[in-house]
């Protein structure tokens, strides 16, 4: 007992007891503490990818290959990124119809947005690519409509028409109308270049420029706005306007000329 009492009075006894208490506390915390937020996020992402792979194997692997490597029926998906999946599946273009035409049309989506997110996460895990944009990137806040119109007429109007009505291309292909298309999908289309469309990555067209174009398309979307100039003539630009002038303007002049000639001939006879 005297020896034990002497050890308790040792100068280092308090330090040893403190170290033992800290070690015990750390061990208990490590054993019973919940997983960190990073670990939880990683686990959630892994589950999302796992569910996306299940959906992929059922609905996509027959054309794009079991590992996304592509086949004779579908291109490789390695490196296309989550943005391409969100656009193609979110607009109903994929899965493609059995009797495929010159290009896949927009239709009602087959998957829910949650399933689309899972598919996008799985395809993104196959190789890095463009990611799904945030609302801040495609939202109207801070957009310049006039600048967007200038950019659209320079880069897009040749195919999509001046106001995004769409137009015909070669070999049965076409540039689809942009009316009623979600801003996120317009951004993704510019980012990924689906089907016949060239891609406009941030190195070619900045995120701000894309936002400006989206704001312009919203401003001229006849399904959401009214035309302050009156009859829009389909919004097809100077061709339809010129045709209207020729048919009705020139037609009216011809009608007047015929009427004057008839009146003159009648007056001479009398």
What does this structure look like?
With about 270 residues, the chain is mainly alpha-helical. Among the domains are: about 40-130, Cytochrome c-like domain (Cytochrome Bc1 Complex, Chain D, domain 2), CATH 1.10.760.10; about 135-225, Cytochrome c-like domain (Cytochrome Bc1 Complex, Chain D, domain 2). It has twelve helices and two strands. The protein has helices spanning about 1-10, 15-30, 35-60, 60-65, 80-90, 115-125, 135-140, 145-155, 155-160, 185-190, 205-220, 240-270; strands spanning about 165-170, 175. It has a two-stranded antiparallel ribbon with strand order 1-2. A hairpin with a 5-residue loop joins strand 1 (about 165-170) and strand 2 (about 175). The protein is elongated and about 140 Å long.
């Amino acid at each position: 007992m005297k020896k034990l009492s002497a050890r308790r009075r040792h100068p280092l006894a308090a330090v040893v007891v403190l170290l033992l208490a800290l070690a015990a506390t750390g061990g208990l915390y490590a054993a019973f503490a919940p997983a960190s937020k990073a670990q939880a996020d990683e686990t959630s992402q892994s589950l999302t990818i796992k569910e996306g792979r299940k959906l992929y194997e059922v609905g996509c692997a027959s054309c794009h290959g079991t590992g996304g490597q592509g086949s004779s029926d579908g291109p490789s998906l390695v490196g296309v990124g989550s943005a391409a999946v969100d656009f193609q599946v979110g607009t109903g273009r994929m899965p493609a119809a059995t009797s495929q035409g010159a290009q896949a049309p927009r239709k009602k989506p087959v998957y829910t947005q949650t399933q689309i997110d899972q598919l996008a996460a799985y395809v993104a895990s196959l190789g890095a690519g463009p990611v799904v944009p945030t609302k801040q990137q495609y939202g109207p806040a801070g957009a310049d409509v006039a600048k967007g119109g200038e950019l659209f007429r320079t880069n897009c109007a040749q195919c999509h028409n001046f106001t995004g009505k769409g137009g015909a291309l070669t070999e049965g292909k076409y540039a689809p109308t942009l009316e009623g298309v979600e801003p996120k999908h317009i951004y993704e289309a510019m980012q990924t270049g689906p089907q016949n469309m060239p891609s406009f990555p941030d190195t070619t067209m900045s995120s701000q420029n894309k936002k400006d174009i989206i704001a312009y398309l919203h401003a001229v979307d006849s399904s959401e706005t009214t035309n302050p100039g009156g009859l829009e003539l389909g919004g097809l630009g100077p061709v339809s306007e010129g045709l209207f002038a020729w048919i009705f303007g020139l037609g009216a002049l011809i009608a007047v000329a015929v009427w004057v000639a008839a009146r003159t001939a009648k007056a001479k006879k009398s």
